[in-house]
Amino acid sequence: MDYAAARLNMVESQLRPNKVADEGLLSAFLAVPRERFVPTLFHDAAYSDDDLPLGGGRSLLEPMILGRMLAVAKIGSGDRVLDVGSGTGYGTAIMARLARQVTGIEDNSDFVAQARARLAELGVLHAEIVEGKLTDGHRAGAPYDVIVIEGAVAAIPDAIADQLAEGGRLLAVVKAGGAVGRAMLMTRADGVLSRRPLFDAACPMLPGFEAAPRFVF
After folding, report:
1. What is the distance between the alpha carbons of residues 111 and 131, in angstroms, rounded to a whole number?
2. What is the dihedral of CA 68, 197, 211, 150, to 10 degrees?
3. What is the phi-psi region of residue 81: left when phi exceeds 0, alpha when psi lies from -120 to 50, beta otherwise?
4. Which of these, 191, 201, 99, 110, lies nearest to 149 by C-alpha position?
5. pLDDT lower than 50: segments of the chain
6. Which residues pair with 102 in a beta bridge?
7. Domain map of the chain by residue range?
8. How far is CA 71 from CA 64, 79, 104, 177, in A?
9. What pLDDT, in 10s, does the model give residues 112-131?
10. Among 7, 110, 113, 140, fewest CB within 10 Å belongs to which?
């Protein structure tokens, strides 16, 4: 399979028509080989417009959803970024081409090892993968100019929102109950957090971010 051609087709047919217009961001998607971040079984499906299973109940986000969130994030060359649920490192690799520093937080030790290996093999600079509880974020590196949560969540944990810098942008797909997920933008201005819905987004729930069970007596 010609992966370079498939990558170009992904950019031209999935990203550009869906409000991803920044050339720097599109160049990052063109530069990062998505097939290197998924199991061998899914190499030939790497550029499909779908989430791809990574194992352990985890998935690689659909390119359009990741692309649209990163377009809204407007990552600049001076930004420090936290990638929550970085998985095997694909999103981290893309963001690292745009930011000053990206920290991927991941709780699956196998994914941590894979992500570190892929980033090293591809010569990705300005990125690190740390192992830890996803819902805690990574306070040691806070505050962050941009935080991206790679998967649906029932709610954005306060522990993560508190790590957003003044003027920062937090992107996540929020899925409450059985409703369709909505990509959300959270910003901090004058110390106040505000939220704005962006677009409908169907993606798997990120394990650990489900709604707490409700007890009925």
Report:
1. 9
2. 10
3. beta
4. 201
5. 216
6. 81, 127
7. 3-200
8. 10, 14, 19, 27
9. 999 999 999 999 999 999 99
10. 140
Q: What percent of the chain has pLDDT over 70?
A: 96
Question: Would you state the structure tokens that stand for residue 52, as one six-digit string?
Answer: 């791809």
User: DSSP code of 214?
Assistant: P
- Contact 142/156 with Cβ under 8 angstroms? no
What confidence tens digit (pLDDT) does each residue in 27-37 have?
A: 999 999 999 99
Residue 64 DSSP code: H
Number of Cβ within 10 Å of residue 151's Cβ equals 25
Can you give the pTM of this predicted structure?
0.95
pLDDT value at residue 178: 66
The CA distances from residue 142 to 12, 82, 104, in Å, are: 35, 9, 13
- Assigned fold of 3-200: Rossmann fold (3.40.50)
Q: Is the C-alpha dihedral spanning 159, 163, 166, 172 positive or negative?
A: negative
Neighbours of 107 (CB within 10 A): 17
Residue (of 91, 187, 89) closest to 144 by Cα position: 187
